[in-house]
Amino acid sequence: PGERSGMPPKKARAKAKAPAEVSSPTEAAPTANRRGRKPAGAIASFVGAITKRRATKVGPLYQYSLTNDANEEPLLSATVPKRKPGMPRKGTATTPATEPKRRGRPPKTQRDAATTPKRKPGRPARRSLPPAPSEEPRVKRKYNYTKKTGRPRKSLDVPPPTSVGKRRPGRPPKTPKTTETPKTTYTGKKRGRPRKNPQAPAPSPVVGDRMLALLDGALDAQTSSEVEERQYVSPRGRNKRAKMTTPASPRGRGGRRVGVGGAVDDDDGGIGGIGGVGGGYLADDFHEVDADSLEREGRMDAVVKVFCTHTEPNYSLPWQRKRQSASTSSGFVIPGRRVLTNAHSVEHHTQVKLKKRGSDVKYVAKVLAIGVECDLALLTVEDDDFFEGIAPVQFGPLPHLSAPVSVIGYPIGGVAISITSGVVSRTEVTNYAHGGIDLLGVQIDAAINSGNSGGPAFNSKGECVGVAFQSLKHDDAENIGYVIPTPVIHHFITDYDRNKTYTGFPSLPFSWQRVESPAMRKWLKMKTGQKGVLISAVEPLMKDKINLRKNDVLVSMDGTNIASDGTVPFRAGEPITFNYLVSQKYVGESAQVRYLRDGKMQECSITFNAMKRLVPWHIEGTPPSYFIAGGLVFTTVCVPFLKNEYGKDYDFDAPVKLLEKFCHGRVEEVGQQVVICAQVLAAEVNRGYEDLHNTIVQKFNGVKIFNLKQLAQAVELSKDDFMRFELDHEISVVMDTKAANSATKAILKTHAIPSAKSADLC
User: Fold this and answer.
1) Which stretches does DSSP call E strand in 472-613?
2) Residues 316 and 644 sit within 8 Å (Cβ to Cβ)
3) For the chain, does the N or the C end have fewer beta carbons within 10 angstroms?
4) Which residues on neighbouring strands pair with residue 483, listed in sequence order?
5) Which residues pair with 606 in a beta bridge?
6) Distances in Å between the alpha carbon of 657 and those of 217, 664, 674, 729?
7) Cα–Cα distance list, 346 to 302, 352, 431 (Å)
8) Sheet with strand 74-81: strands edge to edge
9) Please, are residues 440 and 432 in contact by the beta-carbon 8 Å criterion?
C-alpha cells in the first residue's frame, strides 16, 4: 500500500504510540478555561475510542461528527476549516494507529508545543532538520509528487547532489561539463548573443561561404571554380574568415522606378536617383568611411560651397522675369581645374560664386555646361588662387549593395561642412526629377537635405562614387536619398570633352510593351524559348531612318538578349530595363539589334538621337516665346509653364487636353510645338473673349498651326478682312484685321510690354 505504478516505493512510516485508554469521556474531561473553551487534552482523551469519522461539507467548512464504536452515539460535533494536506491537526499530539496511511509527502516531525513557537495562520509549516548523516551507503534518490504541479520533490534524508544545479520546470536536464569539448557561453539577458570561448575551435567556413554568396546575390549563379581566401568585414566590425567563390558578374544594365511621393528638387524637398554595378565583394567594400582619413587625405578640402543668384522667367507674363532669388548648394573640385555640381543649383543663373572650406573669400565662377537630363553642371574659376592647395577628387567604381558611403556638403542647419553616413540600399534605373528621364542611380539611406545638392558621396577608400542630388519626401518613407552614379557622371564629362558642349542622352526611337501573354506570343509567331518586347509605335520622324516597324519583336541589342518583361542582366539577381543600354550610348552612335517579323529573325542597325519632346521639360535658360495680336497672348506649352500655372501638382490640376499632349504627344514635324492662347488683355477689339485661358490653337484662317513662329508670320502676312483663330473645344475667335493691328500698339503701351513678340520670333 502507498505505492504508485512506475514510481519508487515510499519509505515506511513509523507508527505512533496509541494513547492511554480512559474509562469514559466524562471522567477525564477537565474543566473549561476562563474563556469558555475546553483545553486540547479534552479532545485527545476521545481519540482512543474513535473508530468512525463522518464529515459533511457546509460551504467552505466541514462538519465533523465523532461517534462511539459501541453504541454509535455522537460524542462531539464541531465545524472546522478544511485541513490542508500534510499539516498537523490542531490540538493533537500524536497520530492514531488506526488512521489510514496518507499518500504524498512524508509525515511531518511533531513539534513540541512548549518549546516551539506557535505558527501564524496562513504561513506554511517549517520543515524539520534532516537527520544526521549515517555511516551507511546512500540510498537511491526518491521522489514524491505534489498535487499542484506534479514536480518531483526531494526527500529530506538524501542530500542534494553537488554536480547538478537547480533545474527550472520544463527544461531538460543539463549534460555534465567535460574538459574535452569547450562550449560557447552566452551573455546578455535581452539579446542573448553568444560570446565565443577563446578556447573554442574556429567555425566552419561553410557558413561564411553562404553568407557572402547571399550578399552577392549569386548563391545559385556561381560559375567560376576559382576560390580565394578573403575576409568579410561586417558593418558592425566583426570579422568573419571564410572562403568565397568569385564568379564573373555580367555587365550592368538598366531598370525603372517611379517615386511614390512625387519628385522635386531637394532644395524644395525632393526625390531621387540611383546607381551601381557589381562584381564580387571585397573586404574594403564594407569598411566604414572614416572621416579622419578623409580629413588627412584632403578630400574634404575639395568640397566647396556654391552661391548662386537666379532670375527665373515669368511664364504667365513671358515678357518679364520674376524677382531674383538666391540659393546655396555644394560642389567639389575634379581634375582639369573644374568644379562639378548639380544643374538645378545654377539654373537660370545670373551670378555664381564659390567658397572654399575655411576661407572667407568668394570666387566668381563661370558655367561651362549644364546637363538638364542628368542634373549635372560644370564650373570653372579663372583665379588661380582658388585651386591652390586643393587635391582634385578621384572617381571610383559603382558601390555594391550595403556598401558604406558618406555624403559631404553644406546643407541647411548650419554654416560648417557636414557629413552624413549610410549604406547603399538599391541600384536601378529611376526617374530624374530635374531632367524628367530615366537614368541609372543609387539609393542610399544617408540624409540628403537642402544644400547637399552637388556634394560628393565617398566610399571607404576616399573615392567619389556619386553626386547627391535628390531625396524622397513621403509620409511612408524615411532616409531615402539618391546620388548620381559614376557612369552617368563619366557620360556627362566625356560628352562635354568631345563636343565642347552638352549634347544630351540619346533615347529610343520607338515605344515598346512587354510580351507576357501566351495569346500575344502565339499571334506574333514566337517559338518556345524566344523572348523580347513588342514595338508598339515608332517615332514619326524616325520611320524613314530605321527598319523597325510596328508589331516587330525586339529580341536583342548589341548581343544582349532582352527578356519578355524588357529587362537585361545587370548584376547577379538584379535585372534592369534595357533602357540602360541606350543611356550608355552617345548622340549619333548606333547599335545592332535583332528582331522578329512574322516569325522570322532579322537584323539591322539603328542610330540614336537626342530626345525630342512635344512638351519640353526645360527651355534651357532661354526666355519663353510669346506673340500678341489684338490683345490675345499666344505662347508655347512646357513643363515650367505648367508648374507656374498649376503648381507642383500640375499633372493632376492641368487641363486634360494639355496633359494629353504632355504624356502622349509625339513630334510629327521638325520644330513642332503646342501653341496656346494663354490669356486675353481686355480691349474693345476683343470684347467677348476675355474668359479664354490656356486653350490650344488648332488653325488660323483654315491653316493648321505647328509652332508659334508659323502663327506669328501668318498673322502678320494676313490680307484677309478678318482674323479667325480656331481653338480647341470647337471655339472660334474672330476679329477685324485692321482694328486688331491698330489696337495692338495701344494695348502694349497700356500694359508696358516692350514688343509684340519675343526676340526669337523676329
Assistant:
1) 481-485, 506-507, 510-514, 533-538, 553-557, 560-561, 567-571, 574-577, 590-597, 600-607, 609-610
2) yes
3) N
4) 442, 468
5) 591
6) 46, 11, 11, 9
7) 19, 7, 20
8) 50-58, 61-68, 74-81
9) no
> CA–CA separation, 73 vs 50, rounded Å?
11
pLDDT over threshold 80, residue 422: yes
What is the DSSP-derived secondary structure letter of residue 321? B
**Contact between residue 578 and residue 535 where contact means Cβ atoms under 8 Å apart:** no
Distance CA 316, CA 588 (A): 37
Asked if residues 466 and 507 have their Cβ atoms less than 8 Å apart, the reply is no
C-alpha cell at 324: 531674383
Whether pTM exceeds 0.85: no
Which three cell numbers, joined as nine digits, stand for 581? 543600354
Query: How deeply is 187 buried, as exposed, middle or buried, from its count of CB atoms within 10 A (0-12, 13-18, 19+)?
Result: exposed
What are residue 92's phi and psi, to 5 degrees?
-110, 135
- The single-letter code of the amino acid at 726 is E
- DSSP for 392-439 reads PPPB-PPPPTT-EEEEEE--TT-SS-EEEEEEEEEEEEEE-TTT-SEE
Active site residue 375: yes
- C-alpha 375/C-alpha 389 separation (Å) is 28
From the list 330, 453, 471, 564, the catalytic residue is: 453
Looking up cell 544594365, which residue turns up?
253
Amino acid at 221: A
Active-site choice (344, 400, 491, 618): 344
590 tagged catalytic: no
Is 495 designated active site? no
Tens digits of residue pLDDT in 240-289: 333 333 233 333 333 333 333 333 344 433 333 333 333 434 444 445 66
Give the model confidence (pLDDT) of 504-524 as tens digits: 999 999 999 999 999 999 999
Phi-psi region of 685 (alpha: psi -120 to 50; beta: other; left: phi over 0): alpha
Task: Assess contact for 38 and 30: CB atoms under 8 A.
Answer: yes
**Catalytic site residue from 216, 265, 285, 375:** 375
Mean pLDDT of the chain: 75
Distance CA 128, CA 109 (A): 6
- The CA R_g of the chain, rounded to the nearest whole Å, is 46
Please check the confidence at residue 386 and state whether its pLDDT lies above 90.
yes
Residue showing cell 528638387: 265
Identify the CA nearest to 25 among candidates 95, 85, 82, 73: 73
Q: What is the pLDDT of residues 221-230, one digit of tens each?
A: 333 333 333 3
Vertex 327: Cα angle to 325 and 329 (nearest 5): 165
Task: Give the position of cell 546575390.
Answer: 217
CB contact set of 566 (below 8 Å; sequence gap of 6+): 512, 514, 533, 577, 578
Cα separation, 568 vs 558, whole angstroms: 12
The Cα 732–Cα 688 span in angstroms is 11
Strands 418-431 and 560-561: unpaired
Polymer length of the chain: 762
Nearest CA among 268, 311, 307, 351 for reference residue 622: 311
Q: Which of 181-190, 201-210, 381-390 has the highest mean pLDDT?
A: 381-390
Distances from the Cα of 168 to the Cα of 162, 172, 298, 561, angstroms: 16, 9, 61, 63
